[in-house]
Amino acid sequence: MKNQTRRRFIKSSAALMAAPAIVPSSVFSKEGQPAPSDKVIVGSIGVGDLGRRHHLKNMLLKNPRIEVAAVCDVDRDHRDLAARDVWETKKKKVGVYEDFREVCERDDIDAVLIATPDHWHALIANYAMQCGKDVFCEKPLTYTIDEGKKLVQTARRYGSVFQTGSQQRSDKRFRLACELVRNGKIGKLKQVDTIIGGINPGSWQKPATPPSALNWDFWLGPAPYVDYAPNRVHYQFRWFSSYSGGKMTDWGAHHNDIAQWGIGADGSGPLKVKGKGERHPNGPHDVFFNFDVEYDYPDGVKMFCHSGPIELNGVKIDNGVMFTGSDGWVFVKRGKIEASNPELLKTEFSSGDERLYLSNHHHNNWLDCIASRERAICDVEVGHRSCTVCHLGNIAMILGRELTWNPEKEEFENDAQANLLLRRPMRSPWTM
N or C: which end of the chain has fewer CB within 10 A? Predict the structure, then answer.
């Protein structure tokens, strides 16, 4: 039976009983706490910096609705520290794993949270759903566009509840900005600008023997084999195209997601894309670090994605999203929202206005949907479509020409060369 929690098992079993049964006290909650049968049993896969510091310590272990049953990482030091965190917080020993498949195959685990490097996201999420798990997966959701299409298919086939880690959708400022835009409060939308920041190209570090705690071959997984170097792993993997798409997919997966929300393109995307970017001339980081990408959406809406910083409508911006309409503008970033007319921010929406999905906490929204089986605020298709915008930008910069995109077919029009970049070969034995 698909993803049956203990709570649902107890309820369904009770319905079949013809005689009264004695229910153990452990089923019921202590005052102010969820019953054990109401908790979601979670395996945390990828417990490095973001996975441990943000998700495990601040979100999973502090949430009374969650029981962490397993931690997993290909770096022994990471998984041992994570297990220690669980013990110190909950006085509970958890399963400690190197291989994500062992976590996904545990019958007692309801859901997994994935915070691995980007080139692993889709493989692990797809396997987890096939094992009957609900999924929270960090952004950027995928390494390629075809991976996203596959994840959507798998989620729909198995009825999985899927939350993409684009948590700005659960922030009231970003929701307000998009509601103002979607309801014409700045007039007809003309232009959207996302400013996501660049990177400072690093210097080479010589290949070295991997640390004894790190399974380097497993860390590479489906990516081509290369010798280990200290600045290829952990946070800096983002700047190597074998594992990620640079800032375009890193911060772009956040701000381009909000752009899609404001435009109203969650199930669609742009029609054309072109861009230019700079790469470090002799490495080691081979992603685009300085760039400007232009997208054409229906109804004449233009979107520009910049490494920045830039000035727009008299506002100097190094990070954030600017919506410009015929009658004004609204700018939003984490912790801040501004408008050409400050009174717009006090707008009281009427019953005839379009209201967007309300979530005040990204992880709790995931838990709510696991219970209700409804789709999360950043469902797998939303995450896939927003990530697609980022991948399109990188592909346009790689090819150096304007491309025509068909968002219904999710392929480039009459462009075999560009369509080859929708997927990647995977190093054996990994397939999806």
Answer: N
Q: Which residues pair with 49 in a beta bridge?
A: none
A 10 A CB-CB count for 306 gives: 21
CATH number attached to the domain at 6-167? 3.40.50.720
Q: What's the token pair of residue 358?
A: 């309300």
8 A C-beta contact, residue 412 and residue 405: yes
pLDDT at 1: 37
Domain edges within the chain: 6-167, 169-349+383-422
Per-residue pLDDT reduced to its tens digit, 1-43: 344 444 444 333 333 333 333 434 334 445 556 666 689 999 9
Please name the fold of domain 169-349+383-422: Dihydrodipicolinate Reductase; domain 2 (3.30.360)
Tell which residue, 48, 54, 44, 49, has the closest CA to residue 94: 44
